[in-house]
Description:
The protein has 356 residues and is of the alpha/beta class. The protein has two domains: 3-132 and 331-350, Nucleotidyltransferase, domain 5; 137-320, ATPase, nucleotide binding domain (Nucleotidyltransferase, domain 5), CATH 3.30.420.40. 38% of the residues lie in helices and 20% in strands. The chain has a seven-stranded mixed beta sheet with strand order 3-2-1-4-6-5-12, sandwiched between helices. The protein has a five-stranded mixed beta sheet with strand order 9-8-7-10-11, with helices on both faces. Strand 1 (3-9) and strand 2 form a beta hairpin.
Amino acid sequence: MEKILVINPGSTSTKVALFIGENEEWAENINHTQEELAPFLTVYNQIDFRKNLVLKALRKHGQNVDELDAIASRGGPFAPVKGGAYEINDAMIEKIMKDPVDYHVSLIGAVIAQQIAVSIGKKAYIYDAVSVDEMDPLNKVTGLPSMMRRGQGHNLNMRSAAIQYCKMHGKDYHKGTFIVSHLGGGISVSLHRDGRIVDIIPDEDGCFAPNRAGELPQSQLVDFCFEGHTKQEVMDLLKNKGGLVAWLGTNDTRDVEKMIASGNEKASFIYDAMALSVARNIGKEAATASGKIDQIILTGGIAKSKLFDDMVANRVSWIASVSVVPGENEMSALALGVLRVLRGSEVAQLYQAPKS
């Protein structure tokens, strides 16, 4: 049976799993504190740190790296791509390291996967990358022709959650309209119609989240950028030090809920504001679909919290019924996608840099 190592770097953790065929043999969620990540100026500086943790997990479970058949990684927002599998090649790595379309820790997953794969003479893949772009052209238009909205977000888990919901309720994912929100270190809200993610609101123009600043007042952001901050400093603030971290000093919603339980009014207020930002963006996608929504689905790590789910659902249940598919199915989605490639039922695509 095929052995597939799965790597999924997130803003607050690195998830690692070993799949043998369709079955998960073991999995680890390696959490990273703000203090651990503080010495790294950029996510690229974390490559060796996280790779060593992945290899340590393999050794802990007695798995020889040479026995792996392939490595699967979450695909970051490196370039607009089609859905499905991509073999990690040098062109993809160059794009990730030099000119990605967005800055996110998931970018380094492909780098780590390729380094491990090369060391054992095997191949590495990504699947349903963050920057999968299936958006309807109308949904991309902004007030500036030079700045179009991009189809990127937690595509892998959101599509997986929608498919899982449909299987549980006897519905056809390819014949329905769903709003799906991934609630994690970053928060995305997406509109799925007939099997395509036709619109998505990522954290850069939507919800604030445990680590993300989300949508901000334009004039204030412009002023901040021109106050002598570097691009790296601004991006780090927006992507890693915003949201709950900026307001409450933690990216862990469990800590926030403990604050709330102990009577912390500020924590309660900010948590409610984050739930409101999710509900507000679900409302935007409802308008995009002219209100014709079959189901609203909440997924991701924060969706394990009934408190937060209820805070969102109470504001949007008038649009459509709300279901919760808690946690993340990203690891199995990655493994099964790569397994299809290994078994020949799906062909991996190759990224090619656009010709200038």
